[in-house]
UniProtKB/TrEMBL annotation:
Name of the protein this chain belongs to: NAD(P)-dependent dehydrogenase, short-chain alcohol dehydrogenase family
Record keywords, A-Z: Oxidoreductase
Residue stretches spanning the membrane: none
Matches recorded under Gene3D superfamilies: NAD(P)-binding Rossmann-like Domain
Molecular function in Gene Ontology: oxidoreductase activity, acting on the CH-OH group of donors, NAD or NADP as acceptor
PANTHER family linked to this entry: 3-OXOACYL-[ACYL-CARRIER-PROTEIN] REDUCTASE FABG (PTHR42760:SF115), SHORT-CHAIN DEHYDROGENASES/REDUCTASES FAMILY MEMBER (PTHR42760)
Similarity comment: family membership: Belongs to the short-chain dehydrogenases/reductases (SDR) family.
InterPro entries (alphabetical): NAD(P)-bd_dom_sf, Sc_DH/Rdtase_CS, SDR_fam
Matches recorded under CDD domains: SDR_c (cd05233)
Keyword Kinase: no
UniProt keyword Glycosyltransferase present: no
Amino acid sequence: MSTKAAIVTGGNSGLGFATAKKLCDNGIKTYIIGRSKEKTEDACKEIGPNAIPVIFDLNDLAGIPAMIENIAKENPIDILVNNAGINLKKEFLDVTDEDFLSIIHTNLLSVFAVSKAVVKNMKENGTGSIINISSMASQYGIPKVIAYSASKGAIESMTRAMAVELAPFGVRVNCVAPGFIKTKMSSTALDNDPERKNKVLGRTPMGFLGEPSDIADAVYYFALSESKYTTGTVLPVDGGNSIGF
């Protein structure tokens, strides 16, 4: 049996790291794309021999096809996890056109460019699974994250459009929408703002924050044949937050 190969963008920290670790721990050779050489190589060392660092800035759209082609030469790509993304917290009126464009460039255009390059390879092989990472910010209105919300709403629409167009070629496309997950960044933010923390937990029916491994498990389900009849879906992994009252 040949080893499956995956790409995880932004896999050197947070949810991307947990996802890459889950794939690697289950014998899947995983290329972790990250901007920071040190951070990406350290993450791969921590994960183990199945993790391969790829140092690349996804804002370089023109360089993406060649970067993906180099990976595909080593291994046919079975799984793509579009996880890399940036956020910006600013009042609506303070967001500049440049701010907005920067978020769209990283969170949306790079996902399109990476997916397009990977799909060429998947199409040749007649199989593949793409998992996009969205956010609760696409499910309902959250203040001060207008550009981020726009980018994640577009990711969910793009997931459905890609799923329909790529299904005839054996390529499935799904999306995971994380809720409030316990990471270093979110823990610091919520611990420093008890009112916000109470609001978050108050509208989360399960009453606690998720773990990065919860997202990794959902991605893993979509990555493998257990979900072979599932495409074009958005799965909220949020303890019920998106339907909480």
